[in-house]
Amino acid sequence: MKRLAIALLATAAVSPALAQEHRELGAHEHGVGRLEIAVEGSRIAIGLEAPGADIVGFEHAASSAGDRAALDQAIAVLEKPLELFVLPGGAQCVVTEAAARLVDEEEHEHEAHDDKAHEGEKHADHGHEAQHTEFRANYVLTCASPAALTGIEFAYFKLFPNARELEIRLISEKGAKSFEVGRDAPALDLKGQL
Ligand SMILES: [Zn+2]
């Protein structure tokens, strides 16, 4: 599967299903992040993947003090999930875990170098010219009154002006559903979904 993913990437034709399984940074679309929300009883696990372009406006290696400050600031903001994804106060959710990090191309290539299929010309086509970074964050929330989880408001778009859209996958006892939430209508109605 990994070999296939790399071969497809070389032709810039990674299918969404495959991309989800083995995400390559070069395959992300600037402006579009992904959010997975899994609700199980009073516990909500959230995973965010967002292009560096969306969060700090650049994906080059931090070369100045200003760049580094922007990255640190972004991580600090990303580690406050309830300020990004605003839940109804009545649900009484608290943050149990929050961790955010920046993933860069080098980390990804390190992993790819182990694969023999990655050598030779495919390697040359692999987009070394275009560097990409992605922020990844994982959260766990605990909500005392999960019945009050009627929706999410995405202050995320206010905090990150370059973000346009979040592709959302919601997993609950009712199954898995996909949504898209954009800057023009930054809310997700959860009534009847959980
Ligand atoms: Zn990028």
UniProtKB/TrEMBL annotation:
Annotated signal sequence range: 1-19
The protein, known as: DUF2796 domain-containing protein
Annotated spans, Disordered: 104-129
Originating organism: Pseudochelatococcus lubricantis
InterPro entries on file: ZrgA-like
Keyword field: Signal
Basic and acidic residues composition-biased segments: 109-129
Pfam families: ZrgA
